[in-house]
Amino acid sequence: MKTRRYDPAEVNRRLNGRCFICEMLAGNPEYRHHIVFQDETTVAFLSKYPQLYGYTLVAPRRHVEQVSADFTEAEYIDLQRIVFRVGEAVRRAVPTERLYILSLGSEAANRHVHWHVAPLPPGVPLEQQQYAALSRNEILDLNESEMSALAARLKAELS
Q1: How far apart are the first and last CA of the chain?
Q2: How would you classify the pairing of strands 42-46 and 35-38?
Q3: Per-residue model confidence (pLDDT) at position 14
Q4: Are 36 and 154 in contact (CB under 8 A)?
């Protein structure tokens, strides 16, 4: 697949302190993402900056910043059920040798808690797996039609 350069610092500058998840949920067209699942508490959507094909984010709809402290145990477990469902949908929809699930973010950017569901494709050499697969400054160059088709496959797997 074709890739393009990705500069996380530039993306952070463009956010200018705004929460991209809250902006997306508010309908801001600058922050439009391909949503593959949503209910009253959770949203799952394709990453705009995917290092791996099928890279999906799962987040609570309400703005929370602490990965465990801002949830009751029941809320956390309910959210993890959605992360599991999305992970299984991704695994069924795209070739996956290993499924990575992480919660990343920082106080400086991406404060809204979210989980990364990232499918490692088969055949990737060991030195390009794990953190190396997620820390490249290149992302897949997918056009709107490719993103829409992938989102449709994930939605079908989630229904």
Answers
A1: 28
A2: antiparallel
A3: 79
A4: yes
Tokens 């160059």 belong to 141
Q: Which two tokens stand for residue 25?
A: 């949920």
Residue 114 has pLDDT above 90, yes or no: yes
Alpha-carbon distance 140 to 4, whole Å? 6
Cβ–Cβ under 8 Å, residues 113 and 105: yes
Structure tokens at 16: 């200018």
Report the 10 Å Cβ neighbour count for 102.
12
Q: What is the pLDDT of residue 86?
A: 98
35 touches 45 (CB < 8 A): yes
Q: What number does CATH give the domain 3-158?
A: 3.30.428.10
Give how far Cα 139 sits from Cα of 50, 75, 147, Å: 5, 32, 13
pLDDT of residue 18: 84
Do residues 151 and 46 make contact, with C-beta atoms less than 8 angstroms apart? yes
In 3D space, the residue among 47, 59, 20 whose CA is nearest the CA of residue 139 turns out to be 47
